[in-house]
Amino acid sequence: MSNTHEFQHCIPAAKIGREASKTRFEADARQCALLAKRYGILSVDSLTGEAELVRESDGMTIAVKGHFAAEVTQACVTTLEPVKDSIEEDFEGWFLDESQAKSFKKARKMKTDSDSDEPFGGDEDEETMMPAEMEDPEPVINGMVDVGELVAQYLSLALDPYPKSEKALAEGPIGDDSPPEKTSPFDVLKQLKT
C-alpha cells in the first residue's frame, strides 16, 4: 500500500471476522512530525491507542471502535507561546469491504433458504436508526482497513481551535469589551451648574 497518509496502521480486511479482534498502535517520530505539519501545529509529541475491529452480520461492513491518547503542542493564539495539551478520545468508524459483496441472485437464495420470514430480523414497521457514518462507510482500499487515518481524523477534530497560554489567560481579553458610556444631553447642563 502506498504511503498516502501521515499515519497509517493498516489491518488486512480478510483477517477481520465476526469475533472482535484488537490492535494497538503508536505513531513514530516521523509520523508525529507529519501529523503536526498536516494540522498546522508546533508538534504532535505522541499518539497511542487501541482499537477493536469486527465484521458486521452483513459480511461487508467492518466496525471499528477504540480509544487514543495524544500529547500535542500548539501556538497560543494571542502570544504565540507553546501550549501543551493532552488529548484522550474515543473513536468509531465503519468500512465497506466490497470484496465480500454478494450477487443479487446469491442474496435472494440466502433469503429463501433462511428460516426467518424477515430478511433482516425485524418488524417491517420498526425503524432502525443508523449513525450517519454507517450509512456511508469508508471503503476498504487494497484489502486494508486504515485505522491510523481514522484516528488522525478524530485527533484533528479534538485539537483546541483557540489554544491559549497561561499568560494569555491571566491577561484576559485583548481590547476593551465594555460597552461605550452613554452620555446624556443633560450632562452639559450639570457641568454649567457647578
Order of helices and strands: EEHEEEHHEEHHH
Count of alpha and pi helical runs: 6
Overall mean pLDDT stands at 82
The proportion of residues in beta strands is 25-35%
Largest sheet: 5 strands, mixed
Describe the model.
This protein is of the alpha+beta class and 194 residues long. It has one domain. Helix content is 26%, strand content 29%. It has 6 helices and 7 strands; from the N terminus they run ββαβββααββααα. The strands form 2 sheets. A 5-stranded mixed sheet has the order 2-3-4-5-6. The chain has a two-stranded antiparallel ribbon with strand order 1-7. The chain is elongated and about 100 Å long. The relative contact order is 0.20.
List the helices and strands and how they pair.
Layout: E1 10-12, E2 21-26, H1 29-39, E3 43-55, E4 61-75, E5 82-96, H2 104-113, H3 132-135, E6 138-139, E7 144-146, H4 147-158, H5 166-171, H6 187-193
Parallel strand pairs: 5-6
Antiparallel strand pairs: 1-7, 2-3, 3-4, 4-5
